[in-house]
Amino acid sequence: MSIRERLSGNEASAVAMRQINPDVVAAFPITPSTEIPQYFSTFVSNGSVDTEFVAVESEHSAMSACIGAEAAGGRAMTATSSNGLALMWEMIYIASSLRLPIVMPLVNRAISGPLNIHNDHSDAMGIRDSGWIMLFSETNQEAYDNLIMAHRIAEHKDVMLPLAVCQDGFITSHSIENIELIEDDKVKEFVGTYQPEHYLLNKKEPIAVGPMDLQAYLFEHKYQQAEAMRNAKKVILEVAKDFEKLTGRKYGLFEEYKTEDAEMIVVCMNSTAGTTKVVVDELREKGIKAGLLKIRVFRPFPVEEVAKALSHAKAIAILDKADSLNGAGGALFQDVTSAMYVNNIHVPAINYVYGIGGRDTTTKHIESVFDDLAEIVKTNTVTNPYRYLGLKKGGNQ
Amino acid sequence: MSNMIEIRWHGRGGQGAKTASLLLADAAFNTGKYIQGFPEYGPERMGAPITAYNRISSEPIRIHSNIYEPDYVVVVDDTLLESVDVTAGLKETGAIIINTKRDKEHLQKSLKGYAGRVYTIDAKKISEEALGKYFPNTPMLAAIVKVSGIMSDEEFLQDMQGSFKHKFAKKPEVIDGNMKALEMALSQVTQIQ
Predict the structure, then answer these.
(1) DSSP H stretches of helix in chain B
(2) Looking at domain B5-191, what is its CATH homologous superfamily?
(3) In whole angstroms, what separates CA B155 from the centre of its chain?
(4) Domain count of chain A?
(5) Of the candidates A214, A247, A280, which is a domain's last residue?
(6) CATH code of the domain covering residue A212
(7) Which residues of A touch B (CB under 8 A)?
(8) CB contact under 8 A, A6 and B66
(9) Residues of chain B positioned with their CB less than 8 A from the CB of A361
């Protein structure tokens, strides 16, 4: 029997970490993820975990300590947001290229500047090409569930890559909501123990970690990283199948909400998906064939699967909670449209940059997106694919 | 989700509006409901206006945005009436509850023609009498439970007794005072319109 609780997204993440009981947690506080190491440190103090908690002096050191611990053969975790992730930047790439399956809750917040503590996905988009598996979470429940599944994915011998579990800062991280927790012993059994193949503290096999790697082999090692990322897709689905047996909760690479016969589909990630579901239901009551495709696995990007799932739509809108500032659309838009092009599927597609710096996204905003899609279906023309949602008139006020 | 109740709290930093919204979420959760309790974070400082929200439903809640058309508004500090548009979007089928000594005549201007139900409560008097200190959030929590009918008085008091035992585990001497403040508020919240 699961445990009916009410927790914020941060509390839920900290509870998942308590149940996972990693060997090392190294963290530095930054809003809005601060509560995760804060709650976790109380679990350390009261002895409900036997984790070595390292209160480091920066996020760069947090990731460095996790790399050291993981390379030694331990299971290491941290948590961060926004500029904390930016300060980890150098070590983020070291973690993935050394094939260290570190797991990190990433509570999404706008990257400075100017300074803003609120939610968007500009922090996460900074590591989209860094070789980390990235899972996105609509709710506190999904943030928790994704963390429980994380180590099984990251530590799989065909993967061995670090993994970030994203959720929306404040919107889910600080909202108290219902959640179903799994019993401690069941989590322990599900997650299992980490048995690395090669590790520094194995006296039978002395190894070097992270030496110079020049023209002769770096290319091959990068190829192996890319292969590992491709392999992750299969492993993610296998782990999800086991998780469903344990909890009854079904996870895929993405969630399709009423897309089966949908003519208009919105694609988005994290909490906006919930608000979109409300709008889809309202439109369905009026007989309008609306649907939602919520990306859960952003890295690896489920190229063929996304393209197939959107192939029957008459118009789609891809919502990016980060502006790539490149004149060519947001990151999710580029991934989705590229996936469709490569799979020879052409559906009119538009991009919206939305929710920047915590700008609230309401059902009215989402309704306006479906209105725009209806217009595209009607006229069969896309006048401007690069749009903004919730931007003040003219954008200059 | 027609059975969903949406509540907006207006208070000042330090008065416990956020805590009250979380306690209300807790109490509703304990009666088997689906809940959301979340503050609108800004540059939080003591005394600055803050907003917090609740959604309470018998079905899972999926929407993740602020509340613009609440069923109920709770004003924890009546000095906000001059600076904050507290009735903005408030449904006329709902109600507003204000912590104030003022009468209907003196509140009229701030309510901007709101035609729904209006309740007042002197949370300062209740708090000072029951707790010896000014913590308006406890009486306001009872007032919103009473006016919204989210749960019965008995269910609420029983649940809060449990919550306070947990919350004030290190200072049990304040539990009785807080319970008294809740009981007084349940009986003293008054409909003036």
Answers:
(1) 17-30, 104-111, 123-131, 137-148, 153-167, 175-188
(2) Pyruvate-ferredoxin oxidoreductase, PFOR, domain III (3.40.920.10)
(3) 17
(4) 2
(5) A247
(6) 3.40.50.970
(7) 6, 32, 117-118, 168, 170-172, 174-178, 271-272, 274-275, 277-278, 360-363
(8) no
(9) 65
> Quick one: pLDDT band at residue B1, thresholds 50, 70, 90?
very low
Nearest by CB to residue A175, choosing from B1, B38, B62, is B38
Report domain extents, chain B.
5-191
Q: Which of A117, A178, A360 sits opposite B34 (nearest CB)?
A: A178
Tens-level pLDDT at each residue, chain A (397 residues)? 799 999 999 999 999 999 999 999 999 999 999 999 999 999 999 999 999 999 999 999 999 999 999 999 999 999 999 999 999 999 999 999 999 999 999 999 999 999 999 999 999 999 999 999 999 999 999 999 999 999 999 999 999 999 999 999 999 999 999 999 999 999 999 999 999 999 999 999 999 999 999 999 999 999 999 999 999 999 999 999 999 999 999 999 999 999 999 999 999 999 999 999 999 999 999 999 999 999 999 999 999 999 999 999 999 999 999 999 999 999 999 999 999 999 999 999 999 999 999 999 999 999 999 999 999 999 999 999 999 999 998 676 5
User: Could you tell me which of A148, A142, A110 has the C-alpha nearest to residue A271?
Assistant: A142
Domain residues for the domain of A93 are 3-247
Residue count (chain A): 397
- Contact status of B134 with chain A (Cβ, < 8 Å): no
Count CB neighbours of A225 within 10 A: 16
Q: Which residue of A has its CA nearest to B37?
A: A176
Choose the mutation target among B8, B55, B62 for the interface with A, i.e. most A CBs under 10 Å.
B62
Let me know: does A2 contact A144? Beta carbons within 8 Å: no
B168 touching chain A per CB within 8 A:
no
The whole-number pLDDT of residue B23 equals 92
Of A305, A43, A73, residue with least CA distance to A204? A73
CATH number at residue A321: 3.40.50.920
Tokens 């149940």 found at: A19
Residues A264 and A189 in one domain: no
Beta-strand pair A24-27/A52-55? parallel
Domain boundary, last residue among A208, A225, A247: A247
Q: Coil, strand or helix: which one is A205?
A: coil
Residues A125 and A225 placed together within one structural domain of the fold: yes
Closest Cα of chain A to B43: distance in Å? 9
Contacts B35 to A, Cβ<8 Å? 6, 176-178
**CA–CA distance, B9 with B97 (Å, rounded to integer):** 10
Judge whether B166 is closer than 8 Å to chain A, CB to CB: no
Tokens 């920066």 belong to residue? A58
Are A239 and A276 found together in one domain?
A: no
| Residue type at position B6 | E
